[in-house]
Amino acid sequence: MLGLAIAVWTIGDVGLAEIAQTAQRMGPGGFVAICAWSLVTSWLLGGAWQAAAPGEPQPPLLLFAWARLVRDAVSNLLPFSELGGIYIGVRTLIRAAVPAPRVYASFVVDLTTEMASQLVYTLFSLLAMAPLLMGASAAGLRPAIIGGTAVMVGCIFLFMRMQKVVLALAARIAARFLPEATVLSEVEAELSRIYAQRGRVLTAFLFNLAAWTTSGMSAWFVLKFMGSDIALWKVLSLEGIIFALRSMAFVIPGAIGVQEAAYLLVAPLFGLAPEAALALSLAKRARDLVIGVLALLGWQIRESRDILARP
């Protein structure tokens, strides 16, 4: 509710009429184009997850792309945090007969490579905007941007360092109190097996890095459709900062309010007008809504069929 209030205040402060007028320049064709481009990003994310899940037989790429699409739809549209989307994405693969230990272990590897690739992308963003951060106009935002990025980097390194330790500890606790529980030990073994295949881990990293890049490029397409003449590197840098701030707000469903406030504060550093920045944010929300609703409908139809098929 607080995030929604911030979003409404941000839009109202700039002016809904000005934002809507800017967004209308994109037109229906432009909106369809960015929706189609978003599916390319989902395909890349699916490829990253599949690369992190080696095994025989190898589940199809389309299944992993679908699981990732549903995961993002739940995170963006339903009143859950990112954890709710993760649960549904993992459940989707398990219900498709992918072995549970492989799903859990591959998710950990995929999330690790996704965070590592985001770190690379964010560092590129900070490097690209370094001259802007040093300027007087960014004095008020400099601590928030650098501090938020530092916290994100710390969380990423902590997650990478502790994942095997935490899994091993959880397996020992489960074996002590729940002797019949073997899933955690199987996940730990599967995780070690996946990390031993460094080529697969590198492939997952590259797929995730490509996904971050294509997602940033989609914002550049939106601004082009709206008639904004801004360099691609500036948009990629802007999106890197927005992604980092959104990641820090993972407990807020869809990062509602955080995304809008971030665009309003950071975009002017790149010469982007506030109404254009918020029009970009709303266009991305509308894209996520359209694709997300279709994904949620498909997910619910599949769940309903499974329920009706039970004896």
Structure description:
Keywords: Cell membrane, Membrane, Transmembrane, Transmembrane helix. It is a multi-pass membrane protein. The chain crosses the membrane at residues 27-45, 119-138, 144-160, 204-223, 235-256, 262-283. Pfam families: LPG_synthase_TM. It is found in: Cell membrane. It is a single chain. With 311 residues, this protein is mostly helical. It has one domain (30-309). It has helices at residues 2-14, 16-24, 27-51, 61-77, 82-95, 100-128, 130-133, 142-177, 183-196, 198-225, 232-248, 258-266, 274-309. The chain is globular, with a radius of gyration of 20 Å. It starts with a helix and ends with a helix. The mean pLDDT is 82.
